[in-house]
Amino acid sequence: MLQSQSSTKSDCGLPMLNLRNLQSAHLNTDPFEYLIVSEFIRPEWEDRLLVDYPVIEKPGSFPLSTVGIRPHFAKLIDEMNGAEFRSAIEDKFSIDLEGRPTMFTVRGRCRSSDGKIHTDSETKIITILLYMNPRWENEGGRLRLLRNGTDIENVAAEVSPTIGTLLAFKRCDHSYHGHLPFEGPRKVIQMNWVIDEKTVAREAKRHRWSATMKRLWSS
Fold first, then answer.
1. pLDDT beyond 90 at 196
2. pLDDT value at position 10?
3. Contacts for 78-81 with beta carbons within 8 Å, 24 or more apart?
4. Position 6 in a domain
5. Contact by Cβ (8 Å): 207, 63
6. pTM (predicted TM-score)
7. What is the CATH number of the domain that holds 49?
8. What is the Cα–Cα distance from 196 to 63, expressed in whole angstroms?
9. DSSP reduced 3-state for 25
10. 8 A C-beta contact, residue 46 and residue 163
11. What pLDDT was estimated at residue 14?
């Protein structure tokens, strides 16, 4: 886990994640298993996390090892990677994640070509998206959970990427999602429980290579 370099204890002593909101969230099963949680980040922490979110100037997904990590953000990642959060997800999805490795990437900017309809790879078991934007007034960039893989308007649910909004879903062959085009800042933490450590190593290598190429293209 990440270790912060200074004290990150809240004035009120509360953790960052509101697990009660997750535990009380409704698990939807149509068209696949997912849940949406509002205010998953406690309000006391929101401003500090907005300040501490990694500075990412390029589109794409970046492993944590390739971005600057500040103390409050490190604490957030530690809580997401903790046993309490894993246990809550296991209970909601009736799944055993004991021993399954986790993988994190972060995004800071969206390009107009992002958001195409897709399902996650078969190596992913559970996908977690935790949004980190102060407010969202655009129609584009709102993730849509879809009933098929061809029609972006065939929407089962739509998620505004406002800070503290959590989306969790179980990957399957029809867990289609995407969003309407948007270009600009769009911050999100993606966490996955995956099938094995080989997946983590392979994906980390792929994302590091992609991050290196982005830096070269911008130089």
1. yes
2. 43
3. 78/1, 78/2, 78/3, 78/4, 79/15, 79/16, 79/17, 80/17, 80/104, 80/128, 80/130, 80/189, 80/191, 81/1, 81/191
4. no
5. yes
6. 0.89
7. 2.60.120.620
8. 17
9. coil
10. yes
11. 86
